[in-house]
Amino acid sequence: MIEVISAILSGVAILVSIYAASTANKSAAAAIRSANCSTIFDEYLIKKIPQARTALDFDGDGYLRNGNKFCNVLSEMNVSALFYKYDDNEFFVELTKQSGNLEDMVVEAGNHSTDPKKFWQDIQSSLESIYKLIDKKRTGQKI
Questions:
Q1: For residue 33, pLDDT beyond 90
Q2: Which residues are CB-neighbours of 72 under 8 A, at least 6 positions away?
Q3: Could you name the domain of life of the organism this protein comes from (predicted)?
Q4: Which of 89, 94, 79, 75 is nearest to 132 (CA)?
Q5: CA 15 distance to own-chain centroid
């Protein structure tokens, strides 16, 4: 009887050990994923994109000014994110697609007279989408 109880307790101990190791591996992977995202994106998300966004304005004819600086920041961010082309190509492709669409919107507003109110709404929506995409990557959620 004692041998059966001992065997059961040993089995439970093994299962607990396996679970603890699995949890530790997942935690370590999450920490690495978060650190990578912070290293690559924090300066863009916290400083560079908001500053470049603030510099955007319209002239009296409805043409966007200072769009090149904003587009350059987005392009730099994509180059900085090249790590993900090899680590998570699906994320990288989606990030560059969304950034490219935003750049196209900015270039278009610089080349053609644009409704500023609609432009600002579209910019806000596009930036929110990019920020959410990066946040999902940081937290390990599927895109």
A1: no
A2: 52
A3: Bacteria
A4: 94
A5: 36
